[in-house]
């Protein structure tokens, strides 16, 4: 989707308003932090994804959840080389 926006003064900064359909298409939400990068083609706007530590990721896991079938099959495969169990 293409659109237009006008650069406007907002206090000591400037900003642009993005059309609602574009926000929906990009999956952006009001108040979300985005990263900006100048490129030879213009301005690249990316959603900032949270960066988690291993401890944070482990805390989100359910240790009682069953292992997915494809991983269980892989985990239970017999050794075929010099693997040590």
TrEMBL record:
UniProt cross-references to Pfam families, sorted A to Z: MazE_antitoxin
Domain SpoVT-AbrB: from-to ranges: 8-53
One function term, GO molecular function aspect: DNA binding
Protein name per Swiss-Prot or TrEMBL: Antitoxin MazE/antitoxin ChpS
Species annotation: Pseudoduganella namucuonensis
């Amino acid at each position: 989707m293409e659109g237009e926006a006008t650069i406007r003064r907002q206090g000591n900064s400037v900003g642009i308003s993005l059309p609602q359909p574009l926000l929906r298409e990009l999956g952006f939400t009001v108040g979300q932090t985005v990263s900006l990068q100048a490129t030879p083609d213009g301005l690249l706007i990316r959603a900032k994804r949270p960066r988690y530590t291993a401890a944070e990721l482990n805390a989100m896991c359910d240790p009682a959840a069953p292992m997915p079938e494809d991983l269980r099959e892989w985990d239970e495969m017999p050794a075929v080389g010099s693997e040590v169990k």
